Each structure stands twice: as C-alpha cells, then as structure tokens.
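hi! just following up on the protien thing from before. the input was this:
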Amino acid sequence: MINKMTLKKDLKEKRELVNITLDRFLPRKDEYPKEVHKAIRHSLFAGGKRLRPFLCIRAYSLFSENIERVRNVAAAIELLHTYTLIHDDLPEIDDDDFRRGRKACHIMYGTDIALLAGDALLVSAFELLSHAPLEDELKQQMIREMAIECGDRGLIAGQMMDILCENKDVNEKMLSFIHKNKTGKLINMAIRFGCLASGATKSDIKRMNEYGTRLGLAFQIVDDLLDIEGDEATLGKTIGKDVKVKKATYPSIYGIDKSHEMAKKLIDEATILLNHYGERAEVLLMLTDYMLTRQF
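and the predicted 3d structure came back as:
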C-alpha cells in the first residue's frame, strides 16, 4: 500500500505541473495593467494545495496515462477555485483578511481590484479550457457544464443561500443544498472532467460521480469542523468565523461528534467505490483517507 510520503510527493509533483501551466498561461505581473495582474498572481500563487486539480488529474489517471490531455483542464479548475476564494473573502461576503497564509487580495489591493481579479480568473478559466488538446465536442460539453455548475444554478446558488441563511435557523435540507452547491459541485466537477478527458466509460463516470459527491460533502463537513477545531496558522485563514456570524454548518445543526461520524461514513462509502479500481486507485485511496485528518 502507498505510504504518506508517496502521497505527499505526488501532490507536490501535480501541484508543480499545474503551477507551471498557470504561470505560462497568465500575463506577467508587470504586464499592463499591472495592478490587476499583480492581484491575480498574489492570490493564485499563494501556496494552495491544488486539491481540485489533483483530483482531476488523478481521476484521469485511473483510465489514461497521457496527462498532457488533462493539464489545461486541471489548471482551469484551479483558476475557478481561486476566483471563488477572492470573492468569498470580500467584506461584502465573508470579510476575511487572510487566505492561504497571506493577506487576502482585497486587503493588499483594495476591494475594487480584488473584484476585478476574481472576474478575470473566472473568464480565464474558460479560455484555458478552450486550449485543452481535446476533441471540440468534448470541450464544448465541459464549457457548458462548467458554466452551469459555477453559475446561479450551482456554486453561486450555494453561496447566495449561505449568505441569506446567516443568523437564521436552517433545516437539514437547506444545509445540504448550500454545501452541495457551494463546495461539492466544484470538487465533483474536477473528478468528472478528469474522467471525461480520459475517455472513461459511462459506468465508470457514474461510479466516480458518486465518489465525488461523497468526497465533496465529507470535505465540507471537515472544513466546518476545522473552523472550530483547526489551527489558524496551519489553515492559513481565520478560524471561528462560522460560529461568530452563525453560518449554517454541520456542527451547528448536528453537533461536533455527529459531524465527525457523518464525515467518516462518507469517506468509508467513497473508499468502497474506489476499491473497484484496485491498485490503480492507490493514490486516490490514500488522499480520500487523509480527508478525515487533514489540517488544511
């Protein structure tokens, strides 16, 4: 069985691959207009784990070996993710001063430039995806799905309800809606896009979609728990904010112990789905198990 050092090495290798792809694609920080390009690079190269691109590449690798087909897809997903972080940190939404261990984009460059930097990353994600060495029909499908998953029927819908439900009593159904859309869909999309790029069968895509759904929800539950139990220096962001503004979270509705149990059950189910692929899924299995004890 693969060990943790092997997982750490693989995460680092895939992160470097994605960073090289992003660095080559994006304008330099001294390119006109400098302010927005500096803001983009400040947030994008702040040392993120690149979890979503990693999941995309590793899902792809279950069914195909030539990762050149998927590197632009994975990098585009990171552009999307960083756009959401910049906008989430704005005073009008979560009002966070730190992200990934450094000052948030709006603290460094102002809310106006941060807003534009996030916008630029969003549209750049579609541009980078369009350059992927994939069949035109497949790229069109991904672009369409990306727009739906990240729009007002997906990610933005989850963020909207997250804002509206602050300081309110929220039922289990609404909590599930918020986190399925706000967090889960982007994680699941990364996995699905990796499968699509690889030419995986419909049954494999269905199985990996079920895996991604469970992993995405478990990730969010652990994220909610880390806001209570986590270390601020390790996380690289402010903790305790969910409780302060009375956000709808799993611990706030189910309690801490029950939330831990729910996360473990989801990870156990995700592991069973991955076991179908045997040794090919060793890295993903290790990462899946690590989700329960992660500190980032």
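The two ends are 24 Å apart (CA to CA).
The chain has 15 helices and two strands.
cheers
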